[in-house]
Amino acid sequence: MDTVLFIVFAVIAVVCAFNVVLQKHPIASALSLIGVMGSLAVLYLLLGAEFIAMTQIIVYSGAVMVLFVLVIMLLNAGAEKPSGKSWFAQIAGLPLLLGFVGLMGFLIRGSVVPWTGAVRFGSWAGGTAQNIGRLLFTQYLLPFEVVSILILIAILGAVVLGQRELD
Amino acid sequence: MPQIPAVPLSWYLLLSAVLFALGVAGFLYRKSIITVFISIELMLNAVNLSFVAFSYHLHRIDGHIFSFFVMVVAAAEAAVGFAIILTIFKNRRTLQIDEIDSMKL
To answer: pTM for this structure?
Structure first.
């Protein structure tokens, strides 16, 4: 059952990711990205990360993607114009990409993680909101506060960038 | 009792690597500034999957905390990034990345 769920949602994620890269319209790419994020949320649940799965749905598929779609509609972004790509990208792009994936696969199969390590749904459920909240407000309190300042700065930056020129 | 077939941890990491590579490809190949942004989000998601998978492997939830912080930073980045995109569009009337070249020598 685990394997079936993993394969189904991994295939959905990879197909949607290909769609993100290959589509010409930004809105199609954005909607495909929602598919990737939703299937990743299911994979997080399989890995025992309940809180992260819910946050993924609420923050990413909810808030961030609404922002994406809003901006695409606001700017009326159509299909992108094809432009001359450099000869280096045309020749070496795909081989370099495949080489990167092959290298990562080699490293993963090699020494980084034991090959026998298996994931069973329900065998570890540490990622509850209780555990994460406790760790977030004790050991990671300083990063948490710093991140709140970061968000404040981001809000101020967005307001300053978005305001009209006063004249 | 038959052995329950379980998914090896490396499949998750491999999926993460594939998604990251697709994000890099989109970042480098696409010409619309919004799609480049979408590719960045794809890469961040792939890294999050790696964090959560390692967190499962080590049975510690520190990886979840990191992944949570990545989400927070991604949300902040989206807000600022779209403000920048709106400003560029207001001034230049274009979303093509290779037409925004005023810093080119």
So the answer is: 0.89
